[in-house]
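Cross-check.
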Amino acid sequence: MKTNRKILYTILLVSLVVLASVSSFFLYYFYKMRNDNLSFNKIDIQESSTVSYNVLANDSKFYDSSVSTKSYITNEIKNVKTYFNYILTFSSDVSINYSYIIEGKIIGSTKGTDDRILEKTIDKNTPTVKKYSGKIINLTDTFDIDVPYYVGLKDEFIKQYGIDVDAYIEYDITISYAYTSNTINKSKTDKKELSIIIPITEVSTMPVIPLSSINTHSEYSDLTEKDKNTYLAICLELFGSTLLFVLTAILVVRRLFRNTSIYRKDLKALLTKYKKVIVRLKNMPDFEYTDVLFVDDFEDLYDACLVTDKPINYYEVVKDKVAIFVLFSDFKAYVYKVNIRNEEE
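Predicted model, tokenized:
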């Protein structure tokens, strides 16, 4: 028993040592490679955007939205001059192509519902692609929104179709760009959308613009072939470690359950075969005034039972581990012991 158990613990110990050694080697390898060659290149990108407007009334009064955030009488608006600014900043030089489209349209739905019955593009610029090399793009432009013209379109639609509508003016600013960075060795495309919405109401209106925003994100270089091999090595190490753990666990579990299973099987066989001469005890037999003699074979105990016409007493000392069969005769106790360690011996 002791020899086999020692072998089992030796196997477990060797497995753990090998696992620790392999893990340590690859962890050191990954850490060193990460510091030396596996540091990813990246660029940080920040974009900020602002949309604002000024209202010119029919009486030539000029309202600056930055200092006045009130509503305006719809029929008194002559023009809304809109301004947008978009700044794109890179942490290292890039080559970039960019353009923007300003598209104005009127959108209307049946009054009091979301059923859109009117949508018409009225104003759209021709985009011009610009090229630039550097770190910062500062894009600024202005455009006019002829509010009376759109109000006229709404009135004309109602007159023509006899349907009252809720309508609004929407100008969308779509900024598209594509850049190439040598720092991360890749090309990317992206876009930013801004808008201004002016409800066309019968009494008063107030343009709706997006809040000024600043967003930052990073782009990283792709893995090189060497990086991929490094990650592959780490994956193999983890796979090997996992496999070793599983096999070791299976070995231990099988060993433990196999011994218990054999113990129960042998015990059941004895209790079944010799049930006519076996008495099951609830308490441990008293050996105080007897000489205890251990027998190596249950058949010897059974032969003594036949000769003396004495029963064989059975008691399980430790559940699923140790059981004894005892025959008392002439102040002697003949004992046959069954335990889980019999399978190891």
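The longest strand covers residues 77-110. The two ends are 4 Å apart (CA to CA). Passed to J.P. for a second look.
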